[in-house]
Amino acid sequence: MELRPEPFSEALNWALTPTVPAGANSLILGNVEHGYLAFDYLIDISAQEAIPEPVWVAVMELAPPHEAYAIAVNAAIAGQFTLAIPALRRAAQAGIGDAEAILWDANVPMRPAEEGLTVAWQRMQDCRQDFGTDHEETLIAEIMVAFFIMRCGLYSEALRLYEQLVDRAASALGPNHRNVLGMEFGLASSTFASGAQDEGLPLLEAAVRKSAGTLGPRDPAVLDRRRMVVQFLVEAGRNYDALQRLPALEADCVHLPTTHPVAVGVRRLASQLRKQP
Q: I need a surface site. Which of 26, 43, 210, 261 has the fewest CB within 10 A?
């Protein structure tokens, strides 16, 4: 049958119209002022086919930055990281620090670490003024400051900041909050990177175990932290220790799309390690 798409406004009215007058609900609920939500039975239908690339692109382009960020994360999980990059950059420019961190971790940073630190510092000051010191938005902003301090190679300074952050965040958000788990891994990372490797490696492994126990072993953040532990070991010249951890990490990443940033990073590490004598 030949496709003759109707205007968007007409399609929206159709989707908002109950399927049976005064009876069954429409496909979507809501209005232009408060937004729209797909009805439960539509959400519950399992996807039969992958979302086409043009749909990902169009939705991310149309969405405001915060929504585009959430969609981009899901696109990356679905193996469409390349398509997600523009939305992540737009989100980062709008002040969503996690988006910029994802770009850095995927080796496609949008600006030098020093510039990122300047932006993150200003964001932190604004959040402290607007929300107070222990608000989640402020704590997230402080995480990004510590993140960029690490990226600038100032490991001891990052360590001091993470030490101040962890207890405050655990008190404000709870010890198993996703952001607190990330801070604990940041504390362990900065400890290892500052030169205290014998102290830092057990901290890294403990942080990964706690993350896995809380988020689940297949959570992309958990797998990425395991990848980072291997990366730290390689950078420290401890290739034997890195190789010991690599096979289990590779096996646990098989469910990820081949283009997922974690899968790409693990393959890169494996190639680097196995080429060495």
A: 43
Residue 197 and residue 214: Cα distance in Å, rounded? 25
For residue 30, what are the β-bridge partners?
A: 36
- 31-41 tens-digit pLDDT: 766 677 777 66
DSSP states along 208-230: HHHHHHHH-TT-HHHHHHHHHHH
How crowded is residue 206: how many other Cβ atoms within 10 Å of its Cβ? 13
Q: What's the alpha-carbon Rg for the chain, to the nearest Å?
A: 22
Question: What's the whole-model pTM score?
Answer: 0.75
Separation of first and last alpha carbons in the chain: 61
Give me the helices (H) in the chain, please: 8-16, 40-44, 53-62, 65-77, 81-93, 97-105, 113-131, 136-151, 155-173, 178-193, 197-215, 220-235, 239-252, 261-275
